[in-house]
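step 3/5: co-fold with zinc ion
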Amino acid sequence: MSKTVDDVVESGGIEVIIQNESEKTAPRCPHGPALLFEKTGHGEENGRRFYACSACRDRKDCNFFQWADEKISEARMLAREEQNRSKKPLFTHQQYCSRFLEFASLPLEQRRFCVDCQLLILPGEWTNHTKHKALSEDVTVQRLKKPSLLLSPLDNKKSNAQYLFAERSCHFLLDTLCTLGFRKLLCVGTPRLHEVIKMRNLEGKSPVMRSLLLDIDHRYCQFYGQDEFCRYNMFNHHFFDDEEAVKFFQGFLLEEGGEKLVMITDPPFGGLVKPLANSFSQISMTWKHLNKVSDASAEMPMIWIFPYFFESRILECFPSFSMLDYQVDYDNHPLYKHGKTGRKQSPVRLFTNLSPKDIILPEAEGYRFCSICERCVSAGNKHCPKCDTCPSKDGREWRHCDECERCVKPSWRHCSSCGRCALPDHPCGQRQTGCFKCGSQKHKLRGCPKKHNKRMLVSDDHGAPGLSKHKAGKSRAKNKRKRRAT
Ligand code: SAH
Ligand code: ZN
Ligand code: ZN
Ligand code: ZN
Ligand code: ZN
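step 4/5: write C-alpha cells
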C-alpha cells in the first residue's frame, strides 16, 4: 500500500461522505466498514474519493486506505482478510465471560492482572506472562467492579484517548437523568458512567437504573457480560459481534413497562461530527422503530458530550439540540481537570434534545437559572438584553460590542481595520473579507476546502465568527436567538 490517509490529507482538504445503504459495500478494516472521503483541494485529485479507517486517526493504529475506484487484487483481498482476523481480540466475548467467572472464583492470592497485556490471567497462563509487569495489589472483588480504575486509560493522543469523568460529573448526570424519570441508560463510549450506575444500584440509595455500554475498547469484555457490553464502533455504527450483539442492543432499546431510555455519549474529541451524528441517528431510528413511535419528528432522548466549539457543527446535524452551560470535569485530563489550586475551566459541554429548562445545574457550583432564557447558565454568563440571550460559551463573562451587534469574548477588542472584534494580537491589516482560514478572497470560511484539513477540530479563540452562522436552513427560526449570540 503506497498511500495513506495522511499523504492524501497533506495535499488538500477532505470531506466525509455519508452513505448509509452502501455501507455494506464499503471495504472493511479491523474496525468494520471504512468511511468514504472525498478530496476537496484544488489539485488534480480534487473530487477523488477514497476509503479510510473510520476509527483511527493515526496511521500507526490502522493504515487502511483504498481509492474508491481502485481495483483490488485477489491476493490483496486475502491479505486484508488475514489482517482483519489477526487484529481481533484474543478471545470471544463469551470466552472472556467464562474466564471472568473462573477468575472471580479463585482465591485472592491466585488472581492476577497482567498490566502489560491488560488482561486478567488464570493460573495456567502465568508462565506466559513471567516477563510482564503484574499488578502489585490484590485484585479484590471490589476492584473487579471498577474496571476503569484497573485498566490503564488508553492514551492515544490522536484517536482514542480515554478521559474518565470525575465523580461529581458522573453523579450530576445520573441524578439529573434519574430525576427526569429515565431508568435505562445507553452508554456510548462512557465506561466510567456504566460502572458508577452499577455501583449506585448496589448501594441502593437511588432508584435502580439499567445500563448497556457500547464501546470499542475490547478490554471491557473481560468484566461485562454480553447483556451489558457490546463492542461497538460509533463512527460507522458497527457491532463487532454482529447479530449476537445487535440482539442485546435491540432488546435494551425496547422500553418495556414504560421504562424510559436515554442515550449518553462522550466520543473522542478528535472525532468527526458527521459520522458520529449519523450513527446516533441510526440508534434513534432503531429506538423509534422498536418502540413503534409514530410521531415523525420524535427523537430518542440523547446527551452528546463534546467541546463547546463544536456547537455549530452539532446543531447542523441535530437542529433540535441545545448546548447547556454545564462544564464536564474529568479525572485524568491534563487540561480540564478540576485541580487543587482552583478550577480550570473545562470546554466540554452537554448537547441534548432534552428540554434545557428541565435540567437544573448545581447551584453550589455557581450555576443559576435565567428566567428569560429559561435555562441554567454559568455564574459568569450574564444575560445581554441587546442580544436577548445569555451569550457566553466558555463560562467567562462576555461583553456586548455595539459595532458587531453581538457579545464577544472578554479578551477580544473591536478592530476598526478588520471591522470586527478579535484578539488584540490578531493578524491585522488586510480587511478580513475573505476566508478566515486560508486567507483566500474567493470564498468564506464555510466554503474553505482546507476547513476540515487534517480531520482535526477548528479551535475556538482563533476560529472565525462566521462559523456559527453556517446553519441548517430548517432550524433557522428556532436557533435565531442562539446564532446571534455566537
Ligand atoms: N468520559 C467517559 C469516557 C470518554 S473517553 C467516561 O468517563 O466514561 C472516550 C470513550 O470512547 C473511550 O471509552 C473509548 O474507548 C471510546 N471510543 C473511542 N473510539 C471509539 C469508537 N470508534 N467507537 C466506540 N467507542 C470509542
Ligand atoms: Zn481501522
Ligand atoms: Zn502479560
Ligand atoms: Zn450582547
Ligand atoms: Zn466588535
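step 5/5: annotate
Residues 110 and 362 are 45 Å apart (CA to CA).
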